[in-house]
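Possible regression after last week's pipeline update?

I re-ran a chain I had predicted before the update to compare outputs. Posting the input and the new output here so someone can diff against the archived version. Not blocking, just want to make sure nothing changed silently.
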Amino acid sequence: MKLNRRKFLHCSAVAAGGLALSGAGMPLYAYDPELVTRNKDETRRSYCGLCHPRCGILLHMKEGKVVQVTGDPDHPVTRGLICERGLLMPEHIHHPDRINYPLKRKGKRGEGKWERISWDQALDETAEKLSRLRDEYGPETLAFTHGTSRTHHWDSRRFYNLFGSPNICGAANICMCPSYATEYATYGGMARGDVRNARCVVIWGRSPAKSSPVQSYPALQHAREQGAKIIVIDPRRIPETEMADMWLQIRPGTDLALMLAWINLIISEDLYDREFVDKWTTGFEELKKAVQKYTPQKVAQITWLSVDQIKESARLYARTSPAVIPYGYGLDKQGVNSNQCARARAILRALTGNLEVPGGEIFSQSPETGKLRGEFDLVASEAISPEQRAKQLGADTYPFFGFPGWERNVKNNKKLPSGYVGAPSMYRTCTAHLRDVFNAAITGRPYPVRAMLSVANNPLLAFPDTRLTFEALKAVDLYVVMEYYMTPSAALADYIFPSATTVEQPQLWTTGGFCMTCPPGIEPLYERRDTYQFYKGLGLRLGQENDWPWKDLEEAYDYVLEPAGVTFKELNKTYGFFGRREYKRYEKYGFGTPSGKVELYSSIFEELGCDPLPEYKEPLWSPEGSPDLAEDYPFILITGSRFMPMYHSEQRQFESARERVPDPLAWMHPDAAGALGLEENQWVKVSSPKGSIRMRLKFSTIMHPRMVDVQHGWWFPERKEEKPELFGVFESNANMLCPVDAEHCSPEIGSWPHSALLCRVEKA
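New output (post-update):
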């Protein structure tokens, strides 16, 4: 397969139909009618789903084809802005390498031989094989790997619950879910920072200029313009440091130690909100005792920071109210400390009295959106029996992230009024562990996993230990994929179903206190379908005839909206609605925890055998954790930093995107590279104790001289599909460097490390 040379668009202001705006080195595009292409037949309203947010877009049509995309100036959230990734939508919709029809493998798995079949044949044969495997091994023999909101999640969970399998797994262990589940256990819901109205913003484990340039970064700019203090904690000099009052260049993987030093200082210097702590928290004395050992002097040695930096930053955060520490993905992918980072951040928010106050950390539901039916009403959780729940792979090792933890969070959530913060999500907080799932596929222990589905997910690029993933996908009797393109993982499938683009299907987006419609701009092209049609089609063939009552997604969304007395079509006329924010609702209802208070000492963690108080653990592959190993691997490795216009392993097929970023890059400080005799732009070999990959070297002074930052998600659609090449999936894939062994994972939920590892760099 070759990269297509027909260029649908260039990432420019003219192509965007707008004016390029500066965004800390990240161009945004504002709608400008003078620059919109004139030779169009019509314009249709839709939304972009090329990454996680649902930014409003306009599709400019010519002869039934999307020829241009601009931001929708009437959209209530994004207000006409889109980023350069959004400009790729026409290329994505009409790309000649899209999978447009169901495919069935011919010959051996991974030979690259396919035949086109009908949807009915593909569903019939898949369902027949699943039925046979279920009869032989039980429903738990089916596993599933999911991606991050490129499609839907509730429909997959509904299918699996009805089928009887508890073995859904994916990136949840490292992608917001460690924080989500932990915050439910700590104070009964996930809080979202009111950045625009905050007086102090701590950017920790995220770079909104790169990860959310249309929504989060403008909010930060607004806060700064209003005089807010900004603290940036990041091992790189990210764009946000240019507006920061303090930048702490922390050693990767030591964030929890710094948080505990902050907690210690805030308590010892009496900077905490005594009234809130006394009335609305439990476990303060135990916390106070536990953090006394995390002195600024000790933590300075751990983190590479100065004592003054630790003290001054803690005081600035504690004394400047209201303050927020917005969620950041960077803390979720550090391995052993991931969950306790989320605990410590939640504790900091509570100690300083910043929960449920204007400009502080607010639970996302509003009274209006709380009335709607949610995921809990759609997933049919009651359909999966206690006996099947008990078979969830990994739940014995990580019960907090399996059914035991989820059931406890649900029980406590029910103490609150309906819709107060929303019920704990199954797909975010109740998953099997992929290491156990993959090992069960390979070894048959503790029972055989003989079938897997992957929907909008590319496991070979999404998960650590790529070889383990590869062996698992080869081992199963049935592997079924629903995808946009032929990916390295899809190349190993038995059946591939064509997935509709986001603009070819509706979505209802309820988050942050608002309910927003995401309308389809075009009908699905060729034979693409949405995931609801896929799961419903399988379910109807597997004995679930009475369990899929909605004809399509829009009818399902009408069911969600029914309590508000409005349909999806009616709501779409106004884009949706925003709820009223209410503050300090805990004064009426308490918190959704066993005690009804913020649990600084977590009773749920204790009950499930986890540390009830945060305690820093040195990562195994670190200069201090393995000093002998560090002699051979002298650099600290991080992966996963966002870069435009790619998103994870996507957009590698796009000519316009590859013009911007043609090769996989490894970033080093020029002084460190020079000491090794390395030159910029040469190909280098980056190795960890796990494996090696090939990258093109780039110099950057934003890096600490002892760090290496490797881009993730790289494969090469222009390479050969068939094994052993598989589009070059093993050549420059950062996950080849990342372990998933238990000693590297967080003991609470099994978060594996994509950062804070050891590596060396040499000429390729």
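Follow-up from reviewer: compared with the archived run. The first strand starts at residue 18 and ends at 21. Marking as no regression found.
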